[in-house]
Design goal:
The chain has 309 residues and is mainly alpha-helical. Among the domains are: 83 residues, Orthogonal Bundle (Arc Repressor Mutant, subunit A), CATH 1.10.10; 83 residues, no CATH class; 33 residues, no CATH class. The chain has 10 helices and 4 strands, in the order ααααββαααααββα. The strands form 2 sheets. The chain has a two-stranded antiparallel sheet. α3 crosses α4 and α7 packs parallel to α9. The longest helix has 16 residues. The radius of gyration is 37 Å and the shape is elongated. About 11% of the residues have low confidence.
Length: 309
């Protein structure tokens, strides 16, 4: 009676009257482990979640560009491109551009099974082993530590702090327009509110837009076009982008263009003004002359100009 019959059929699982019932069979081959942070993500769409699962299940060096994925799935290039942007914005996907020795630029796609965060990067860094200090033998007094010999200091690389890591006292204040202009301020607000059209990582909060709008208005006051301001703020963004508001404030301060020139241009830069038109006294032809009563070249050649006789 105490011997178990392993060939006996398992008892049927009770179905839940409400909600889903899971009947799980262990996988032994061809499976992919996916975390609930992706499977139950609150902000990703179903297309993005399914695309992330598909990319994580692919072997290394498999192409995952928009055209290849559109040929594989029926969603089309537009929905697949939007899903890829979602995965990049939430840290599940990244594209790194590198220049080859022959000058060609290639794009490497990197897939993360954990979203890229500061905590995850710090936890994934390998720990440096440290040697335990040697303990002196019993009854032997410890030897005094020898003083280090002076030597030439090793050259230290020049630090270049990120805009958001500098102390508040070292930061320059944001530029502000010289004269308030409501229409210019509206253009600055609209420009900042639509930066995420260029890069989804630049989706700013309302508070950040109010904070940066005077600086953008100062650029517009100095003659910068909205397209030039947008290019200065969105070109060559770092990877990863940790603090978009601090980066935009840094660029608006450090890349501020000079004021537009005021007043009339110098005399040597002004275009020459041609003399007005007057009628020739001999043939009534219109000629350019500083004062009326002059003759044209043909009349002077024919001897009609009394002053030339």
């Amino acid at each position: 009676m105490d011997t178990q019959n392993l060939s006996a059929p398992a008892c049927p699982q009770q179905l839940n009257p409400r909600g889903v019932t899971h009947i799980n069979t262990p996988h032994t081959t061809r499976y992919t482990v996916v975390g609930n942070h992706l499977a139950q993500h609150r902000q990703l769409s179903l297309v993005a979640m399914g695309l992330a699962l598909h990319i994580q299940s692919l072997p290394e060096q498999t192409r995952v560009d928009i055209k290849t994925l559109a040929d594989r799935f029926p969603e089309g290039e537009t929905r697949i491109a939007a899903a890829l942007r979602e995965l990049k914005a939430h840290g599940y996907l990244a594209q790194v551009r590198k220049r080859l020795p022959n000058g060609r630029v290639v794009t490497h796609t990197v897939s993360y099974n954990q979203p890229r965060t500061t905590h995850h990067e710090a936890a994934s860094a390998p720990a440096t082993p440290t040697a335990a200090p040697r303990q002196p033998a019993a009854g032997v007094p410890p030897r005094p530590a020898a003083a280090p010999e002076p030597g030439p200091a090793a050259p230290q690389p020049e630090a270049c702090p990120e805009p958001d890591s500098r102390p508040a006292a070292a930061r320059l204040p944001l530029p502000a327009p010289q004269a308030p202009d409501l229409d210019r301020h509206r253009k600055a607000t609209a420009l900042l509110s639509t930066l995420h059209h260029q890069d989804p990582r630049l989706l700013l909060s309302e508070r950040a837009v109010r904070h940066l709008a005077p600086a953008v208005a100062a650029w517009l006051e100095r003659g910068a076009r909205p397209q030039a301001v947008c290019h200065a703020l969105t070109a060559n963004l770092p990877e990863p982008l940790r603090n978009p508001t601090a980066l935009l404030a840094h660029r608006l301060t450090e890349l501020l263009p000079p004021p537009a020139p005021t007043g009339p241009p110098p005399l040597q830069d002004r275009p020459a003004v041609p003399p007005p038109f007057h009628n020739c006294e001999g043939c009534d032809r219109a000629i350019r002359t500083p004062r009326p009563g002059a003759y044209c070249r043909d009349c002077r050649t024919a001897g009609l100009d009394p002053a030339a006789a």
